[in-house]
Amino acid sequence: MHENLAKAGLVMLSAAALSGCINVSAPEEPIVIELNVNIRAEVLYRLAEDASNTIDENADIF
Asked: Distance of CA 4 to CAs 10, 22, 38, 54, Å?
């Protein structure tokens, strides 16, 4: 089993050595990251809390 693992590692190392150079360069234009923040959960939580307080304050109505 260890022989197969060693052979696989040797093959991967050989392939990496023969694959050539990798060049990484920065883009010419700035990177733009758009964030779509979901605030629905917070709004629903606040509405639920307000509704709960209203029900507690006016228990005789409900």
From this structure: 10, 29, 50, 70
Tens digits of residue pLDDT in 3-15: 777 777 777 766 6
Tokens of 43: 């709004």
- In whole angstroms, give the CA distance from residue 43 to residue 37: 13
Amino acid at 26: A
- How far, in Å, CA of 16 to CA of 10, rounded? 10
Measured CA angle at 19 (ends 17, 23), to 5 deg: 105
pTM of the complete model: 0.31
d(CA 45, CA 43): 5
